[in-house]
Amino acid sequence: MESVLGTAGRRAGGRPDHDHDPRLAMSDPSSRMLRLLSLLQTHRFWAGPELADRLDVSERTLRRDVDRLRELGYPVDAARGAGGGYQLQAGSQLPPLLLDDEDAVAIAIGLRTAAGGSVAGIEETSVRALAKLEQVLPPKLRRRVSALQAAIVPSLGPPSAVDSEALAVIAQACRDNERLRFGYRRRDGETSERTVEPHRLVALERRWYLAAWDARRQDWRTFRVDRISAPQSSGSRFAPRRPPTGDAAGYVRSSIRSMPARYEAVVTVFAPASAIPREVGWLRGEVEPIDDATCRIRTRGDVLDWLMLNLGFLAHEYRIDGPPEFVAHVRDRARRLARAAGADDGDGSPAGSGP
Q: Are 264 and 323 in contact (CB under 8 A)?
């Protein structure tokens, strides 16, 4: 789907195939303008010669096409002279956006997630926007959205809601490679001012995280977005760095798992390590093979009930090895659950009531 709606020739992956047919770009102004609009929407600034080269047109033709976009209501700024180029600005009204199939599916999934309350203050707006989008989605894309949504297993517990305006400021700084300043509240309540090079926003375990290079500490850091206050772009640009693990999601996941916690539960599972998903978000643990038939899981948390609940979702038999306070806590909860279920071990006492 293209919106403003219509389809153009496509290469694999669903994007317009104008790059492969320069004659089409030269001879078809409508297709060329759609291509120009899609390029302007992907970058904050395009140098004139580079943009003309991408469209395979002269700079004079490019100027005419930019003028046509302005007539249609798209606020395109132009800078003249050496280093000049074009930039799509925010206008007083929202013009039509150009979406390919992947864009539309991603936005629909995002709106469904936001409607569930993961971003504070936009639940109702998300539902309205989702209704408008799904009304015009072709059946094949609607099926893709439903399939993806069904495959996403949310973490238990309420989402950690973040301010939608703060999230937008951070996302734009990530997109434009602009340094970001904000206040940050640590886990222990201590606050500080940070200046970072934002890399990516990552949604994990129903929380938003920012992976960024901390200028003061000269190292990578993971920030919970719900602990960030008053984020502001500094306007200064930076050259993107590569995160230590190669991708932002992997880095954030690794950072979370390495964070100190009050308890570390050690569990022996009577199944091979290959049978345990290594990226189980709700488990927050590492899987270590013991032999071909058993493995060990180490999982951390600050609340014993939460650790117990997470382990309860394991599909295999297991034994809790420690720590002792966790073993005692699980035994106590097991007795209470047995009494609640009216279980009886045959001697008149609830099952599991022994030592």
A: yes
The two counts, helices (H) then strands (E), for the chain are 11, 14
pLDDT tens for each residue of 186-245: 888 889 999 999 999 887 766 789 999 999 989 999 999 989 999 999 889 999 998 887
Fold of 263-340: Alpha-Beta Plaits (3.30.70)
- pTM for this structure? 0.53
- Gap between the Cα atoms of 29 and 339, Å rounded: 75
> What would the pLDDT profile of 108-146 be if each residue is shown by its tens digit?
777 766 655 556 666 566 666 766 676 677 888 877 777
97, 99, 134: which is closest to 1 by C-alpha? 99
Q: Which residues pair with 269 in a beta bridge?
A: 295, 318
Q: Are 290 and 274 in contact (CB under 8 A)?
A: no
User: Tokens 């469209």 correspond to what residue?
Assistant: 55
CA distances from 100 to 3, 9, 17, 155, 208 (A): 7, 12, 12, 30, 26
What residues contact 89, with CB distance under 8 A and at least 6 apart? 75, 76, 77
Sign of dihedral through CA atoms 215, 218, 219, 224?
negative
Task: Sketch the domain layout of the chain as residue ranges.
Answer: 18-88, 101-151, 162-251, 263-340
What separation in angstroms does the CA of 235 have from each of 33, 44, 229, 267?
29, 12, 18, 49
Topology at the third CATH level for domain 18-88: Arc Repressor Mutant, subunit A (1.10.10)
Q: What is the DSSP letter of 5?
A: T
Three-state secondary-structure class, residue 147 = helix
Which among 112, 137, 141 is positioned nearest to 203, based on CA atoms? 112
**Any idea which fold 162-251 has?**
SH3 type barrels. (2.30.30)
Report yes or no: 269 and 318 within 8 Å, Cβ to Cβ. yes
Please, is 228 exposed, middle or buried when counting C-beta atoms within 10 Å of its C-beta (0-12, 13-18, 19+)? buried
Residue type, 168: A
